[in-house]
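Bumping my old thread because nobody answered last time. Still need a sequence for this structure:
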């Protein structure tokens, strides 16, 4: 039996009421999750910083004065405390922001490469043409692995003087127009799915920003060497890495710590002689934080189950809206039809 328009509307209202109730439950679940997460981040941030200072750079830490050690520890404690209000501000947001464009790692590296000066050199040519310009740039190739190892090879190349424009085009081609911000409709299951993605995206962003602050603090304190540019470190921290890659580092794996292996050409003309330098950084990763906290992991499971329910409601909501559109279109056809 075909449903009437009124019946379909009532069914749609019932679905949206269920979605609204589920949205309240989702918010409560996330409040519990973020509370546990902030506690776990606080503990694991301090633990990872302790390991960096005592296992990977013990001599650098010992070289600090007592006052410098205390200032460093106080700064790390403060950073671990600040994470809680930052995380809870995520759940209070009532708007859906457009999803950021995902640049691949090489595009992001190109965008953040420091601008280099153009060097002129005379070339002997048969037709006695004028001097040509050349740019010496260091290209960075990074492979970031889940096994906490990244190899960055610094290679000198020569290219034309319009490389800067090429770099901008390389980054620009990944860009798309930014859609407007929308207010969250908590009775709309599709909005809840987008809200979930936004929360997860902002959680990762907060962890990345905290990692950057900790690494800068450790570099400023002369614990971590400053041989790697800060922008490269920031990109490495944000990158999840290539799954399945092997750990080529001699350094032991540790939760929330990233090891970078840097290869630089010694001769700048050949790749025969290379100097390998390693640097260890703090990188807070949500998967590792959850793995190290059973209560947090269990709370994640509850959110996952709730999102599965919302996904099913979204499918039902779309199907019912389609049924309503079909019924209204059929009614409109009948009302406008007449025998000529």
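Sorry it took so long. Here it is:
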């Amino acid at each position: 039996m075909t449903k009437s328009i009124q019946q379909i509307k009532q069914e749609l209202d019932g679905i949206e009421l269920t979605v609204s109730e589920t949205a309240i439950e989702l918010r409560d679940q996330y409040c519990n999750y973020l509370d546990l997460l902030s506690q776990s981040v606080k503990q694991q941030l301090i633990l990872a910083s302790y390991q960096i200072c005592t296992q990977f750079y013990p001599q650098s830490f010992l070289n600090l004065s007592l006052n410098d050690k205390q200032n460093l520890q106080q700064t790390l404690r403060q950073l671990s405390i600040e994470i809680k209000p930052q995380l809870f501000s995520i759940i209070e947001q009532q708007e859906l922001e457009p999803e950021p464009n995902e640049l691949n790692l090489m595009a992001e590296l190109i965008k953040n490469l420091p601008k280099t000066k153009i060097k002129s050199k005379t070339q002997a040519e048969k037709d006695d043409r004028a001097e040509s310009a050349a740019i010496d740039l260091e290209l960075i190739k990074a492979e970031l692995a889940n096994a906490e190892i990244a190899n960055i090879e610094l290679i000198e190349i020569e290219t034309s003087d319009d490389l800067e424009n090429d770099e901008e085009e390389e980054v620009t081609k990944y860009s798309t127009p930014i859609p407007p911000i929308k207010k969250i409709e908590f009775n709309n299951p599709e909005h809840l799915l987008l809200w979930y993605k936004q929360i997860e995206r902002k959680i990762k962003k907060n962890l990345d920003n905290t990692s950057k602050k900790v690494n800068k603090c450790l570099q400023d304190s002369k614990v971590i060497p400053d041989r790697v540019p800060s922008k490269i470190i920031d990109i490495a921290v944000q990158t999840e890495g290539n799954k399945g890659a092997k750990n080529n580092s001699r350094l032991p794996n540790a939760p929330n710590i990233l090891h970078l292996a840097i290869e630089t050409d010694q001769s700048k003309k050949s790749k025969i002689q290379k100097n390998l330098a390693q640097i260890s950084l703090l990188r807070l990763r949500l998967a590792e934080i959850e793995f190290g906290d059973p209560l947090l992991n269990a709370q994640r499971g509850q959110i996952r189950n709730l999102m599965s329910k919302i996904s099913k409601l979204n499918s039902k909501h779309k199907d019912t809206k389609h049924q309503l559109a079909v019924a209204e279109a059929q009614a409109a056809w009948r009302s406008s039809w007449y025998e000529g």
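The first strand starts at residue 95 and ends at 96. Let me know if any region looks off to you.
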